[in-house]
Write a structure and sequence with these properties.
The complex is a heterodimer of chains A (314) and B (77).
Chain A lengths: L1 H18 L1 H8 L1 H6 L6 E3 L1 H11 L8 E6 L5 E9 L8 H16 L3 E7 L10 E6 L2 E6 L2 E3 L5 H6 L3 H14 L4 H17 L4 H14 L4 H18 L5 H28 L4 H8 L4 H13 L3 H9 L4
Parallel strand pairs in A: 3-4, 4-7
Antiparallel strand pairs in A: 1-2, 2-3, 5-6
Helix pairs in contact in A: 4-5, 7-8, 7-9, 8-9, 8-10, 11-13
Chain B lengths: L5 H27 L4 H8 L4 H13 L3 H9 L4
Helix pairs in contact in B: 1-3
The chains are: A alpha/beta (314), B mainly alpha (77).
């Protein structure tokens, strides 16, 4: 359970950095953000980073992010964000940053800029670099750092930057590890603020997904949370989050319809060609699947069914 | 987007249940034309997806509505 929650945490961070990379830089590394030409877009290099991490054999670093950006000066730059979430790998964190930085430099023969995001709970742990020297030789790496604990709750609350919400969710989850009733209250407050912020429907849905992802609640409390959300949305006449349920119902109906057509055919004819299964799994039209189910009971062979489908009989 | 919220998860479950029940009834009605309301209500009350899957398969193979009702009454599923 602990592992599952942790893994989820890492993936939530990774996804948040992907979706909100620009707001993240604006919020956490404002000076760097203003040097980057965001009009030109940016390129995430996840696969490349995975290769380097595998080679480095220093444990998994799920949430790290490698991005190519273009600066206002026209130059390209490679930015590597290291995220330390729960403090489990603190001892060699700076050394690992040093290794990755050099490996990536070697790979790209291009300047690589490393940044650290410290999401742990130890206020005293603040690595800023890694170096060694002897005989007049010196090799060193220094990197900019943000410590999430340093952000005052009020700053996070007032900011309209979506990443402030991600950080708030992170800190509030940490602070309520042994006080789930309080997490329930904070989560509700965070979601309520989304409506008050004037975010668009899509922004609310996107941020809500992250809040759900990060601020996990036990099933019974989550049920209570859902009821509250429904009440809030009715009150505000903003049926956004509740639309997730409708989407889910539609998805569930589609999935089951496809499976049932296949199940009926397999029950009757034992095996089906994969091509036919794939064809059925690609159907998005519920009414058509209903008609197919009825034909699946009455056709006399798989071939007959395939022909009907090919003729667009449904 | 990889993460599925509990809202969607519950919705998916609801949608799957609804459809599974409807399909069992549809198959029986396609084969035997009419079904007693009591049987329909009984099917609509089932909350177990795996059971509904098994019922669907039996719905294709039974030879009468009565046979299906008997299987259900005997708790064969």
């Amino acid at each position: 359970m602990e592992d599952e929650v942790r893994a989820d945490y890492d993936s939530a961070w990774k996804e948040a950095l992907t979706v909100y990379f620009e707001p993240f830089m604006a919020f956490c590394f404002a000076d760097t953000h203003s040097d980057i030409d965001w009009e030109k877009g940016y390129e995430t290099l996840d696969t490349e980073l995975q290769e380097v991490i595998r080679d480095a054999e220093t444990g998994r670093r799920l949430a790290d992010k490698l991005v190519k950006v273009w600066l206002n000066s026209g130059e390209e730059a490679i930015v590597l964000i290291h995220v330390e979430i729960q403090g489990q790998e603190q001892s060699d964190f700076a050394e690992r940053m040093y290794i990755y930085n050099h490996r990536l430099f070697d790979r790209y023969r291009q300047k690589v800029f490393s940044f650290a995001v410290l999401g742990d709970e130890n206020t005293n742990w603040r690595p800023t670099g890694y170096s060694y020297s002897r005989w007049g030789f010196e090799s060193s790496l220094q990197f900019p750092v943000v410590k999430l604990l340093d952000y005052p709750a009020a700053t996070l609350e007032e900011s309209t930057n979506p990443f402030a919400t991600i950080i708030a969710a992170h800190l509030e989850t940490q602070a309520t590890r042994s006080d789930l009733p309080r997490r329930f209250q904070l989560k509700l407050r965070l979601v309520r603020r989304l409506y008050e912020r004037g975010y668009s429907r899509n922004q609310i849905l996107e941020l809500f997904r992250f809040i759900e992802w990060i601020m996990a609640l036990p099933a019974a409390v989550q049920q209570e949370f859902k009821t509250e959300i429904k009440r809030i949305e009715e009150e505000r006449r903003m049926p956004y989050i509740t639309s997730f349920e409708r989407d889910g119902i539609q998805q569930g109906r589609l999935q089951t319809s496809r499976e049932d057509v296949i199940d009926v055919l397999e029950t009757r004819f034992l095996t089906l060609p994969d091509a036919l299964k794939n064809r059925i799994f690609a159907i998005e039209d519920l009414a058509m699947l209903k008609r197919l189910l009825k034909r699946a009971i009455t056709v006399t062979s798989v071939q007959e069914f395939e022909e009907l489908l090919a003729q667009g009989e449904f | 987007m990889p993460y599925i919220t509990s809202f969607e998860r519950d919705g998916i479950q609801q949608g799957r249940l609804q459809m599974s029940r409807e399909n069992v009834i549809d198959v029986l009605e396609t084969r035997f034309l009419t079904l007693p309301d009591a049987l329909k209500n009984r099917i609509f009350a089932i909350e177990d997806l795996a059971m509904l899957k098994r019922l669907l398969k039996r719905a294709i193979t039974v030879t009468s509505v009565q046979e299906f009702e008997e299987l259900l009454a005997q708790g064969e599923f």
